Amino acid sequence: MKLLISNDDGIFALGIRTLANTLAAAGHEITVVCPDRERSATGHGLTLHKPIRADQVESVFHPAIQAWACSGTPSDCVKLALGALLAEPPDMVLSGINHGSNLGTDVLYSGTVSAAMEGVIEGIPSIAFSLTSFSAQDFQPAANFAEMLLEQLSHGPLPQATLLNVNVPAVSEAEIAGVVITRQGVRRYFDQFEKRVDPRGKTYYWLAGEVIEDSADPELESVEAFKLKGVNLDLAWFQQIPTDVQAIRQNYITVTPLQYDLTCAVGITQLQNRQFYHVHPS
């Protein structure tokens, strides 16, 4: 399988090296295009007002891997790879393995998820991988799962415009409880800005928020709202599906299908019942 791999932790991150090398050793054709430095929490940002530079990198990855370090964001990296660096589209876009979790509403800020989502926007099946610890250094269990997941998907492709967001608990393979399909949870943060003064006497602020872990369950849309999206959903069944935030606490690998369509179906149904009057300027 031809794979494009990116990340938001940068070209020298252990997570992307472990993922790329493991998949190359398994016989996949790997191209790496990722930021030349850490670009975490950049969301789906693109570089529009300055040039993007990409330099080939040697002696970092498995010898069979072609790799570029890009000056742009994670989304830039995938966009550049698909539009300029690759001779033909890959079979799949992978992002990660991120150093730290991407659970619940983290996906809205995540450069890791955004890099994979760029592949989905271009019509290419994509997966984002994250290891749920900022201190753990053993990415091999997550890379092994990635290899197994790709093998399974080779026999049955993902639904169109679907991204898989995979989070792997930072424990040994023996301690992983299993794999569970999850829905997206909610992670709320207590945002705290530390006010500091630089050596020149100028004030600056450093974001030092802490996650509130007990907000695990999102509000669910109504059955009618899902029908509006073309989904015939048993809401009671859907509520029984654990959220990624819940399942990861029990040492499960979580696999959450995501999409780029953020339309709020409930909002459409409610707004259609209102009358809006356009005021013409006099």
From TrEMBL:
Cofactors needed by this protein, per the record, are: Mg(2+); a divalent metal cation
Family of the protein in this entry: Belongs to the SurE nucleotidase family.
Traced from the root, the source organism's taxonomic lineage reads: Bacteria, Bacillati, Cyanobacteriota, Cyanophyceae, Leptolyngbyales
Residues that, per the record, bind a divalent metal cation? 8-9, 40, 98
Q: What is its main location?
A: cytoplasm
State the Gene Ontology terms under molecular function.
3'-nucleotidase activity; 5'-nucleotidase activity; exopolyphosphatase activity; metal ion binding; nucleotide binding
Identify the InterPro entries for this entry.
SurE, SurE-like_Pase/nucleotidase, SurE-like_sf
Role: Nucleotidase that shows phosphatase activity on nucleoside 5'-monophosphates.
EC number(s) for this protein? 3.1.3.5
Please give the name of this protein. 5'-nucleotidase SurE
Q: Which GO terms describe its cellular component?
A: cytoplasm
Q: Where in the cell is it found?
A: Cytoplasm
What does the UniProt keyword field contain? Cytoplasm, Hydrolase, Metal-binding, Nucleotide-binding
Cofactor, how bound (note): Binds 1 divalent metal cation per subunit.
Q: Where is the Survival protein SurE-like phosphatase/nucleotidase domain?
A: 4-189
Reactions listed under catalytic activity: a ribonucleoside 5'-phosphate + H2O = a ribonucleoside + phosphate
User: Which SUPFAM superfamilies does the annotation name?
Assistant: SurE-like
User: Which NCBIfam families has this protein been placed in?
Assistant: PRK00346.1-4, PRK00346.2-2, surE
Q: Which organism is it from?
A: Leptolyngbya sp. NK1-12
